[in-house]
Structures are given as structure tokens and as C-alpha cells.
Amino acid sequence: MKPIGVLRFLGTNCDADVIWALNELKAPNKYIWWADHFDEADYSGFVLPGGFSYGDYLRVGALAARTPAMEDIQIAAKKGKSILGICNGFQILCEAGLLPGALTKNSSLKFQDQWVSVVPKNMGSHWTRMNSIMRLPIAHSMGRYIADESTLKSLSDNRQIWLEYKDNPNGSMKNIAGICNAKGNVAALMPHPERAMADWMGSHDGKLIFEVLQWNR
Amino acid sequence: MGETLKVAVKIMPRPEALDPQGRAVHGALKKLGFTVDDCRVGKIVILEINEDVAASAILKAQQMAEKLLYNPLIETFEVYAL
Questions:
Q1: What pLDDT, on a 0 to 100 scale, did the predictor assign at position B20?
Q2: What distance in Å separates residue A196's CA from the closest CA in chain B?
């Protein structure tokens, strides 16, 4: 089985947790370094983990989105490979233009580190197995999803809103916690599924999120 | 080789976008007793570009802004020769 590529940028800090989570799911995996080019055909899917790539300089995700490894992620996305972005990974995918919209400062103006309930919504064919409220942790200061009216409308119309917060913690438009692209192969969320893989961690709902990578193989 | 020209790219949050930084600074100024109607916080990127002609340096700076320095969804930019 081909491995899932886990991207590491300077300042990524949830990479080892994502590898641990994939190992828990017995999914083969391999790190991909930001400066290296790769052949998307060698991988079954990709995860962009959370962190503070490039110290969040200029704009969150902006510098990571323009690295050599991301040029190949663009190719992988076009070819329909599954790509999952988590937290900073979500921000990077938006900056790369692979997902619409942008992530901005929480309306609280604070870094928020707490458990939230998210509701899977408007699921395309890849997401249909998620049917209950999931409990996942968030840890971000730049998690408020924004987009213009026409983008929000097309997200709704095309069933691209993947996860909604039950109680909106950060002021995200339409309570958005996660979205996917029109094709459904690029998806991202602000909560951290890798921190919710077992009951001793507080929840095992994160497993469902990672299974997304396997359904689409 | 041409000489080096300095160009500034001013990046501001879009007028309609929430500017939490500006809001926080506005609040702090008011607490210090200043009367301020509005306050918005952006950033300036100063570039040294190897060009003889100001117009060419400005054009390059615009390309840099569009490729990396600003995000049209949340920001606007202006380029100035210094």
C-alpha cells in the first residue's frame, strides 16, 4: 500500500502527532520535506498538519503555500488525490488557492484552546459515513473562516461545507469548522483530529476524520 | 547594472473586513484619553529593487504583491516609490 505523505514546513509542530495517529490506524505514512519535490503517484494521499509554519509571518500559511512541495500538492490535487489539512494545514490550503476563503483572527482576539462539538454537514460522497456530532479539540488564534457572499453561497450550493461548529467559538462565517473543494478530494478543518484518537485523550472521534484519507483511495 | 530603487508596498485590511488589531489599538488609544474616530492597522513592506526606472521597479513590486505579499480576499495594497 502506498504511504500517506505528511508535509513538514519550518514551524510545523503537529507532524509527529499526525504520524502517530496514522500509525494507530495502521496507515503507512512518510514525511515530505517542504523543500523537496515529490511524485504524487508514490503516495495514496497527503496530510498538511498543524503548527505555525514560518512563524505565521506575513499571513498565516502564506509562505508555506509557496514552497516546492506545495507545487507538487497542486498537481496531486488536480489528479484527485485525497488531501487533508489540519489547522495551519487548512490555512496553507486556503493560501495555496486549493480551498476558497481565508482564516483570520478569532473574533475573541484570543488564542483558543478548548474542546468543541462539530456537526458534519452537506457531505459529498466521500463524507457520508460521518453522521454524528463529533467532539474535537481546537487550538488556534487565526481560525475565523471568512469568504465573500458569493463564495459562501457556492460552498452551500455545492455541498462543500464539511463541518460546522455547534457553538461557534471563533466567529467563523456560517459556523464553518471545515470545508472541502468542489471535487471533494481536498478537505480541511481547524480542529485537531490527531489529538482525539482514543478515549484517554478525551475523544476518539478524530479517527473518523483520518478515515477520509482511506475512503478515497 | 542599474541602481537600487526603494519601493514600499502598503498592505491594509479591506475596508469591509473586521480589523481586530485596529480595534484593539483603537481601544487602547481611547483608554489613554485620545479622541480617535477610527483606527486600522496594516503593514508596509519596503523592497530594494535593482532597476533604473521607477516605473519598472513599481511594476515588479506590484507583481510581488500579487504573487505573495497580499491576499485579495482580506487585504488591499498600494505601491509607492520612496
A1: 86
A2: 31
